[in-house]
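Dear colleagues,

I hope this message finds you well. In preparation for our joint manuscript, I am sending the Peptide deformylase (Ancylobacter mangrovi) sequence together with its predicted structure, so that both groups work from identical material. I would be grateful if you could confirm receipt.
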Amino acid sequence: MSIRPLVIIPDSRLRLVSDPVVRVDAKVRALVEDMFETMYEAPGIGLAAIQVGVPERVVTIDVGPREGEDEDGEEEGERKKNPIALINPEIIAASDELSVYSEGCLSIPEYYAEVERPARVRVRYMDLSGETREIDAEGLLATCVQHEIDHLNGVLFIDHISKLKRDRVVKKFTKIAREKERDGA
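The corresponding structure tokens are as follows:
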């Protein structure tokens, strides 16, 4: 297992549509292990393979509660791990009811915005054994699953906010990327 470097906007790879995984093999399982390690180290609650530069339809998620956390998510502690790996995930049903969460993204560091999405979704995916499964997700899990599946389709959470806010974010990160390039970082 190894921690992989994260792809940060404005990197054009984040706009790629990821390829389906043909079969779950040792290479895919190793990718998933690396993705979990990278996600936990960041720290984050979800990661799409494209965020580590691999254009395949693989997602890792862990929205498990933290030790000592109350119902409102107050008090941070050690996370109780509840890892989920989704291969070739697809949303097959979504509720009409919507919910709003403040979303962030490991590929857009330290930027958060309110995003409205369906409150509940049903997702079909393959597990690490190659078996087809379905899960019903609501709350934070539903938001996270939708956010990560968006990544597989070249969509970022900032695409769900106003054009003005999105343009400001992209401009800021483009400037940072240019400065790093100029400084040889």
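For the figure legend, we might mention the following. Residues 111 and 181 are 21 Å apart (CA to CA). The first helix runs from residue 26 to 41.

With kind regards,
E.M.
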